[in-house]
Amino acid sequence: MKDRIALMLAAFWWGSLTTIGFLVVPMLFARLGNPAVAGNVAGQLFAAQTWVALGCGLVLLLYFRSRADDRSTDSERVAVILIVTALLLALLQQYAVAPHILARENLRLWHSLGSGMYLGQWVCAGALLWRMGRLRN
User: Fold this and answer.
1) What angle (nearest 5°) sits at the alpha carbon of residue 81, between those of residues 134 and 45?
2) How far, in Å, are 22, 43, 77, 99, 110 from residue 18 at the CA level?
3) pTM of whole model > 0.90?
4) Could you tell me if 10 and 135 are in contact, meaning their C-beta atoms sit under 8 angstroms apart?
């Protein structure tokens, strides 16, 4: 039962990243017409996504911790590395990059860096989901 809940949590994390980053935010900029308003709403969505990432990531870390014993597999260790990497990217994006974007400092650089971090988090969450789909004991 715990395995299925953890898998669904990983799917929720990856799905929320996908929906916000690749559907909702581009639609905001296409439909609202005012980039400042769209950017403000997008920033709020990305901040909320950071909390989703923290919640999902921490619960998944607890799940893998509960599975840890002398026979931990390499796949489980890689899963933990993917979770920690994604969490670090989410936190860095929110607390190191986003303030520069909000202050409109060197927007091209900071926006590119934030987009890269979001994409990295998306890749880590997707790889985690893929691996968890294969982890069946």
Assistant:
1) 90
2) 5, 16, 25, 23, 21
3) yes
4) no
The closest alpha carbon to 45, from 113, 94, 92, 104, belongs to 94
Q: How far apart are CA 131 and CA 129, in angstroms?
A: 5
Nearest to 83 by CA among 55, 62, 60: 60
Among candidates 59, 41, 49, 43, which has minimal Cα distance to 15? 49
CA-CA distance, 114 to 59, in Å (whole number)? 25
Q: What is the pLDDT of residues 20-43, one digit of tens each?
A: 999 999 999 999 989 989 999 999
Residue written as token pair 């607390």: 95
